[in-house]
Predict the 3D structure of the following.
Amino acid sequence: MPQSLPVELDVAKIRADFPILEREVRPGIRLVYLDSTATSQKPAVVIKVMDEFYRKMNANIHRGVHTLAEEATAAYEEARQRIANFIGAKHAREIIFTRNATEAINLVAYSWGRKFLQPGDVIILTEMEHHSNLVPWQILAEERNLRLEFIPVTADGLLDMGTFNELLGLQPKLVAFTAMSNVLGTINPAKEIIQLAHQAGALTLVDGAQSVPHLPVNVQELDVDFLAFSGHKMCGPTGIGVLYGRETLLHTMPPFLGGGDMIRKVYLRSFAPNELPHKFEAGTPAIAEAIGLGAAVGYLENIGMDKIKAHEHELITYALECLSEIPGLTVLGPPADKKGGVASFSISGIHPHDVAQILDRYGIAVRAGHHCAMPLHDKFNLPATTRASFYLYNTKEEIDQLQMALGQVIKLLG
Amino acid sequence: MDDLYREIIIDHYKNPGYRGILDPHDISFEDENPLCGDLIRIDLRVNEQGVITEAAFSGHGCAISQASADLLIESLIGKTIEDAKKITKQDILDMLGLDTLGPVRLKCALLPLKVLKAGVYGLGEASDKLVEEE
């Protein structure tokens, strides 16, 4: 039986869930939010659950037996379970709460990397990494004298898999890569990369900061060893992120930060670490934010990640058509069928800051800069680009507005 | 409508009067804004009395940073190095004809002044402190 296409999103209904989309940027100018790759907007249900936590339930978790502490602990752990289900993890204890994807990657570099990597060991990254999946490995490489190798990015914004296959001959210890580029929008063949890496004896880390919010992701299907992502890019609050780690690996890893909650027993001169996942969660965590992320995950699940993916595919297909009509505009990255809802572009002779500033006159929020991917911009010989990115609440009408406003940019500065 | 892209800015951006490189020069400095990759280089020729006789800027960036550089260079010629040290953030905003500027774009507007100050003070690197108000 052919798989039936997902039913279209009811975007009007979704938009009503996001209070900020009602906002006028200035009188009479409604917000057109095309910057979800930087951070997504939050549905009322997420805002409400965090507000209610502080109004009704606020207490520290994992200590104290009073009613509030019990309720807060249960809510925090329920959020962990929801997130585990959302990404198909076997156990909730494989979900480590961090501040964001950046901290999750740093946790792996610090804990796993410092224990298991020796001078001369090879880590394979890609040329399209966000600084968060680059700099932690640079720090570790310098400290431990490791060798970093990079899967090149082709002119059309794809990973050069031929070179990757050659690099695997170096017997890397780790292959760490983004499942979806925050600049090019490229959706990388994560499952294939993981399989090849495992065959070569390497572990794998996926930077899921863009893929988890926008695509269906299942860690068991992917067979990935570590997956890092941020709550705020997937309808959740800032200050909360996740490291998924395969349980057998997490057991072998030493703690990351030391402090309360990560210990089983403390003596004056030593300690015994707590069980998973608490071993990696030192100090009072972002409790309200974890609960908020749990609600965000519930919200996305109710809508359906397959539907969200299909909606964004429709938007990017339309956006690439519209943008191609603008003279002097070049979009980076592959065609719509190989990318998510991200369109980074340059307009010849006009600086991205000016583009973004003029778009703001029309209430259109886009990002201008190097999007925390300076090496990738160097590769394409651009100091910066303008990036429009889409999420479940965006519409084709908003893309029409973008096209119209870009016409005004060219009129003024072209 | 905001009036950030007023005539004076567009005009100096599109038709800069002082774009170029001075070789040889007495003072030269360049710096970039790591947020957006904008790069400004300023070259100065100074006579024995410490008066700036020639000045030019080069590099790349947005309309605000480029117009700010052109206006700053224009204002420098005939000034002494000591005068140049006294130019403030407010002077730049006045030249651009802006009352205020958000924190992000302020960095664009002040990049040329930062480069100038690092150059005239003979510093190894530019810092934001050079253009902060006392």
Q: What stands out?
A: The first helix of chain A runs from residue 11 to 16. Chain A has a mean pLDDT of 96. The interface with chain B takes residues 351-354, 357-358, 360-361, 368-370, 374, 377, 383-384, 412-413 of chain A (CB under 8 Å). The two ends of chain A are 53 Å apart (CA to CA).
